[in-house]
C-alpha cells in the first residue's frame, strides 16, 4: 500500500492498484435484496477503458467538467476514473433532485456536457435547455467515438471533481476537489490504525450515495489504495441490512446517525448474528442514547468521525482509539498534523472547557494541504471561510481535558437531516416565490430518527387563509421544486418572526419558537409524506 502514496492522480493510483491486485473484487453493487453486479480490478479497468473510448469523440479540453447523471449509483465510480484519466473533472448529478436544482448545478458548474441514460435524457434536455450544457447518452457518445484516447497522467493540483454542498447563502456551493484531495483522504484512512486498521482485501459496505464526499472520496479511495472492495448499496434497506452484511461478507460498514436508530428499532433476527464479522462502523451523528446500546447488541464499535466536504482528509478526525467516550458525541482527538482552535463570535479563543466554533488548518507551511481548492465562482466566500489563515467550520465544539473533541451544535444555518446538509436559506427562497407567502423563516427541530427535521414558520399575505389546505399547497409546491429531504416536514402559520435589533431574523429565537409550536401541536405535520417521488421525463 505504501507505494500508492506517491501517485499524483486518482486514475494513476488505480493503475498501480490494478497491477498489484488484478483479480481481486473492487466494486460490487447491490440493489434491494437480490439484484447485484460485481467487478474485479481488471473488470473495472475494462469498463473504464470503454468509457474513455466513448468520450474520445466528445469535444473537450483537459480541465473541462462533465456532469454525470447515473441511474445506478455505482456508475459514478467508473466515470470518475475514466474522466480523471482524460484530465477532466466529474460533476455528479442526483436524479432525485428537482429540475430547478439540476438546472442550477449544470449552469453554475459550467459543465460542457451531462451524460445520462436514455430514459432520463428527455428530462435533462428540457432542464439543460437554458444552460448551454449538451446532453448525451452513452449510445450517442459511442456513435461519435474516434478511437483510443490519450491518457493524461496525474497532476496533484488538477481538479478531479466538483461536489455541491449546502451553505448559508441559499444556493449550494461548488467545492473544487483536486487529485491531491482524493489521495489525501485515502492516505488518511489507510494510516489511521487503531480500531480503523485496514487489512488488504477488506470489503466495505456503504449505503451512502457517491454524489457525496463520504462514498466518492472516503470509501472509494480507502479501498482502492488498500486493495479492498467497495460494496455499494442503492440505498439503505433496514429490513435486509444484516442479510446483505452476511451475503456480501462485509467487515466494514459506513453509516449515518439515522441508521443505528432504525436498526435498533427492528426485532432480533437470525441474520443480525452476522454483525459479529464487522470490525467497525465508520460514520457520524449517532444519537448518544443509542451509541452504547448499538455496540452492546451488535458487537462492533461505531466510530464517530468529523470532516466536511471542504476539509477532506486535510483535517479529518475520528474516535478510532480509546478513550472514545461512547454516547457523548465525541469524535476523537485531532492528530498532530492538524492545528485547531475553538473561538467565540469575535474569533477569540474560548476558555478551557467552553464550547466554541471549530477552526482548523494543516500544521506547517501548507495550511490548506488536503483541503478543497475553493468554492467555484466564489472567491469571496473561499477567503471568508479561510479568514485569518484558519478554516472556519461553523461547527460548535468543546474540548475535554484529555484533548478529545465533542460536537455541540452548528453555528451555520444548516439543517442536518439523516446525513444531508440542508440550507435553511435555500428552502426560504423557494417558499418566498409562492404567491401566498409574505415572509418566512426555516429552522431545525429535533427528530428522534433523523437528527434534525425541517420546520417552516410562514407569514401569509393579506387575504390568504392560514389553514391546512393552504399549508398543504405549500408543501406540494416545495415537493415539486426541492429534493424531498429539504421540504418542510412542519409548517406553522405565524403573524410575525422573531427579529434582532437590526431587524434580522433571530436564529436562536426562531429555533425556540419552532420548538414551542411543535410541542403545542400548533403546526401541520407532513413527515409521513416526505418521501422520494419519481421525477418524470420532460
Short overview:
It is built from 15 helices and 25 strands. It is of the alpha/beta class.
Q: Could you explain the architecture of this structure?
A:
With 538 residues, this protein is an alpha/beta fold. Helices cover 30% and strands 25% of the residues. The strands form six sheets. The chain has an eight-stranded mixed beta sheet, with helices on both faces. Strands 4-3-5-6 form a four-stranded parallel beta sheet.
Counting DSSP H or I runs of 4 or more residues, the number of helices is: 15
How many beta-strand elements? Answer: 25
Rounded to an integer in angstroms, the radius of gyration calculated over CA atoms is 23 Å
Assess the beta-strand content as a share of residues.
15-25%
- Helix fraction, binned, reads 25-40%
- In what order do the strands lie side by side in the largest sheet? 2-1-10-9-11-12-13-14
Regions with pLDDT < 50 over 5+ consecutive residues? Answer: 1-5
Q: How far is it from the N-terminal to the C-terminal residue, by CA?
A: 47 Å
Report on the biggest sheet. Answer: 8 strands, mixed
Return the average pLDDT rounded to an integer. 93
Q: What is the global morphology?
A: globular
What is the SS-derived class?
Answer: alpha/beta
Could you list some keywords that capture this structure?
25 strands; disordered N terminus; 538 residues; 25% strand; four-stranded parallel sheet; alpha/beta
Write the layout of secondary structure elements.
Blueprint: H1 10-20, E1 25-31, E2 35-40, H2 41-55, E3 65-69, H3 75-85, E4 89-92, H4 99-109, E5 113-116, H5 118-128, E6 134-136, H6 138-144, E7 159-165, E8 173-178, H7 179-190, E9 203-206, H8 213-224, E10 229-233, H9 241-248, E11 252-256, H10 258-265, E12 280-284, H11 288-298, E13 302-306, E14 317-318, E15 338-343, E16 356-362, E17 374-375, H12 379-385, E18 391-399, E19 405-410, E20 414-417, E21 420-423, H13 424-432, E22 437-447, E23 451-460, H14 468-481, E24 490-493, H15 507-519, E25 524-525
Parallel strand pairs: 1-10, 3-4, 3-5, 5-6, 9-10, 9-11, 11-12, 12-13, 23-24
Antiparallel strand pairs: 1-2, 7-8, 8-17, 13-14, 15-16, 16-18, 18-19, 20-21, 22-23, 24-25
Helix pairs in contact: 1-3, 2-3, 2-6, 4-5, 7-8, 10-11
